[in-house]
Amino acid sequence: QVQLVESGGGLVQAGGSLRLSCAASGVAFSTYTMGWFRQAPGKQREVVASISWGGANTFYADSVKDRFKISRENAKNTVWLQMNSLKPEDTAVYYCNAYAGATYDYWGQGTQVTVSA
Questions:
Q1: Contact 22, 82 (CB under 8 A)
Q2: How far is 97 from 29, CA to CA, in rounded Å?
Q3: Can you tell me the distance from the alpha carbon of 20 to that of 64, in angstroms, rounded to the nearest whole number?
Q4: Which end of the chain has less neighbouring CB within 10 Å, N or C?
Q5: 22 near 79, Cβ under 8 Å?
Q6: pLDDT of 32-57, one tens digit each?
Q7: How confident is the model at residue 98 (pLDDT cuts 50, 70, 90)?
């Protein structure tokens, strides 16, 4: 059974930092592209960042470039999202995603990030 468990969300003041973690089980983690998505109230889910299976390639949404960093350690089946200089508009539920094709597309339950002004 595939499980992605996010942690590290919470309430932080603008300008602060949080580090999200996603621990995966039941998947061949090192073969999956891992991503972080977020969904704010009344908005569609959007990609925040992704990292290739080996970690060599990363992608960031323009809104988080130079503030967020995605990383992974395949030996620990874990992916992280370091979020710095947080803004109120970063407030959302953050979801971890493991992707290896349409049939192999898994999501975590989400973790709430709230940034106060």
A1: no
A2: 11
A3: 14
A4: N
A5: yes
A6: 999 999 999 999 999 999 999 999 99
A7: very high
> Which amino acid type is present at position 112?
Q
Quote the CA–CA distance of 16 and 115 in Å, as a whole number.
8
Residue 85 gets the label, from left (phi > 0), alpha (psi -120 to 50) or beta, of: left
H or E element in which residue 25 lies: strand 18-25
The one-letter amino acid code at 82 reads Q
Contact between 46 and 61 (Cβ < 8 Å): yes
Sign, CA dihedral 58-63-64-65, equals positive
Cβ atoms of 71 and 51 within 8 Å: the answer is yes
